[in-house]
Amino acid sequence: MAPIEGEYEPSPWAMARDQVETYERTCGREGNTFQNTGLPVIILTTRGNKTGKVRKTPLMRVEHDGDYAVVASLGGAPKNPVWYYNLKRDPAAMLQDGRDRFDAEARELEGAERDVWWSRAVEAYPPYAEYQARTKRVIPVFLVQRRG
């Protein structure tokens, strides 16, 4: 699995684009929380499933024993976020948590394993439970683990 390299296409959403830029420029010292919640975020880098361009997304930090979960909630919208489809097509990823940046591989969780990580995600960011109540889809959860 190759590292995520190539042309970077910033998010069309100004808030996400600006947060990624700040986070990366300061090695996670700034831009490292979600809006005004004080809750930590990570930056997930994927390859666009249609364009092949490098995409970067700030997501809530859900970490346990060096592994991370990323939750495709989109605030409880009826559809999955674009990055969900990026990981489904190509599970190669890069994750940055503060100064720590590493190549990773993601896989969608199911069953009991998903339940464990979903509980961790809700503990890290309680609004996830509200988002699930808002939508008919089961919100996908990916496990992101270091490669090598």
What does it look like?
28% of the residues lie in helices and 29% in strands. The protein has a seven-stranded antiparallel beta sheet with strand order 2-1-5-6-7-4-3, with helices on both faces. The chain is built from four helices and seven strands. The protein has one domain: Pnp Oxidase, Chain A. The chain starts with 13 loop residues before the first helix and ends with a strand. 30% of the residues are buried. A hairpin with a 2-residue loop joins β3 and β4. The model has no long low-confidence stretch (mean pLDDT 95). It is an alpha+beta fold and 148 residues long.
SSE topology:
Blueprint: H1 14-25, E1 41-47, E2 54-60, E3 62-64, E4 67-71, H2 82-89, E5 92-97, E6 100-108, H3 111-124, H4 127-134, E7 141-146
Antiparallel strand pairs: 1-2, 1-5, 3-4, 4-7, 5-6, 6-7
Q: C-alpha Rg, in Å? A: 14 Å
Strand content: 25-35%
Order of helices and strands: HEEEEHEEHHE
Counted by DSSP, the helix tally is 4
Major sheet strand order: 2-1-5-6-7-4-3
Query: How many strands, which pairing sense, and closed or not: the largest β-sheet?
Result: 7 strands, antiparallel
Question: Structural class of the helix and strand makeup?
Answer: alpha+beta
Number of domains: 1
Backbone shape: globular
Q: What is the assigned CATH homologous superfamily?
A: Electron Transport, Fmn-binding Protein, Chain A
Helix content: 25-40%
Low-confidence stretches: none
Describe the structure using short key phrases.
148 residues, alpha+beta, Pnp Oxidase, Chain A, 7-stranded antiparallel β-sheet, 4 helices, globular
